[in-house]
């Protein structure tokens, strides 16, 4: 009793400090949105009005990576038109993810230290940046952990509602991101050696059918299951090792989040192989084939990764699956740090977060400023004009203009399938009324468009971990109805 009471007080103190940490970061970054988040929001609001999937209200376009997320935003948009709606939704799913992981950490079963470490990594500044940026990343991460725990854990096997719940989960997972269909496949394949055939059929077959049903629905609604974004970001095939390098570069660029998740995944796999019997080892190796399979798919498609958000669900799914699988084979000493060693790990992370936090705060501060500046600049005056840019979320939402996306994400399948040079030539031929580009982007447009005919109206600072960049909003002076600007390109 004398030892339990101080421990409970310490746990309450740590929990309170964690809540304050999360609240401080979310409060500081309350206006920080990823550009793509406002693409999703404009899709949601415009599609709600038009009655079909569209970004501009005219062109049918499957340019969203997450139909479910856009649908959710569309439903909520009926209640509010706030530009911060995606931010609020992503924060809610992030908090739900933390509660789910904390619940497993509190159970006190085998692998508890692994869940605690996972929870710590999800508190990092980088985790808060990527999981609360208005995108579906936190929803995909939540579903990944739910999928892993659902396919490995037992219990509730006699409940009649379980198959329907599994069917719904499978359908929602695929509609969140098409890549998560791979997670369903490898989760079910890995569960085969662990779960009795009758239970596998009762719980996992509905899960698979839900995913297949969503794939069929996407094919019927859009004519293809891959979104236009996947087509636009596809390049020439590369080698497996080049794709692996791209994956690891995107992972490590997220600092303690990416490095910590990759280490935790490898440790969870090694510890599972060490403790499991023959069936368990087969199951672990089968499920963890997801990672090399995804790398191979990236190599075949020559897919471009813009940040760790495309990979977070992979690491979270595999870590959760491995931890749940090793809980089925208790008895051997754990590799995970316990007691004082766990506190040392937490202390090291806190020291690293001091440096990471400064870098992340600079990025988030620039996003805050850009959001507030564009919201206050009366860009709705451009609503009847046609604009062009490579990053069209902010300018598209705040101006509500017709947008020519030079990256090919929102203007339909035909534009998305064009090669980059063909796309620039075709869209530049429309002679847009205004441009929203950085300096290097303007130079890449120069061979196809008379950039010198545009004058700069506004400048907006953005930041990455390594450098700052400035977006220029420039209009043509010879277009009637467009606010005149006089500033030349710097």
Q: Care to describe what's here?
A:
- This protein has 490 residues and is of the alpha/beta class.
- It folds into two domains: 28-359, no CATH class; 377-476, no CATH class.
- Helix content is 61%, strand content 7%.
- It contains 21 helices and five strands.
- A five-stranded mixed sheet has the order 2-1-3-5-4.
- Strand 4 (454-463) and strand 5 form a beta hairpin.
- Helix 9 (180-191) packs antiparallel against helix 14.
- It is globular and about 75 Å long.
- The N and C termini lie far apart (70 Å).
User: Which structural class should the secondary elements be placed in?
Assistant: alpha/beta
As laid out across the biggest beta sheet, the strand order is 2-1-3-5-4
Q: How many domains? A: 2
* Rg calculated over all Cα atoms: 24 Å
Q: β content, as a range?
A: 5-15%
The major sheet is characterized as: 5 strands, mixed
Write the layout of secondary structure elements.
Elements: H1 4-28, H2 35-50, H3 67-77, H4 85-105, H5 112-121, H6 125-131, H7 137-152, H8 162-176, H9 180-191, H10 197-222, H11 228-232, H12 240-252, H13 256-275, H14 278-288, H15 290-301, H16 312-326, H17 339-376, E1 386-389, H18 393-399, E2 402-405, H19 413-416, H20 420-428, E3 434-438, H21 439-445, E4 454-463, E5 468-476
Parallel strand pairs: 1-2, 1-3
Antiparallel strand pairs: 3-5, 4-5
Helix pairs in contact: 2-3, 2-18, 4-5, 4-7, 5-13, 5-16, 7-8, 7-9, 7-16, 8-10, 9-10, 9-14, 12-15, 13-14, 13-16, 14-16
List keywords for this structure.
single chain, 490 residues, alpha/beta, 2 domains
Concise synopsis of the structure shown:
With 490 residues, the chain is an alpha/beta fold. The protein has 2 domains: 28-359, no CATH class; 377-476, no CATH class. It has helices spanning 4-28, 35-50, 67-77, 85-105, 112-121, 125-131, 137-152, 162-176, 180-191, 197-222, 228-232, 240-252, 256-275, 278-288, 290-301, 312-326, 339-376, 393-399, 413-416, 420-428, 439-445; strands at 386-389, 402-405, 434-438, 454-463, 468-476.
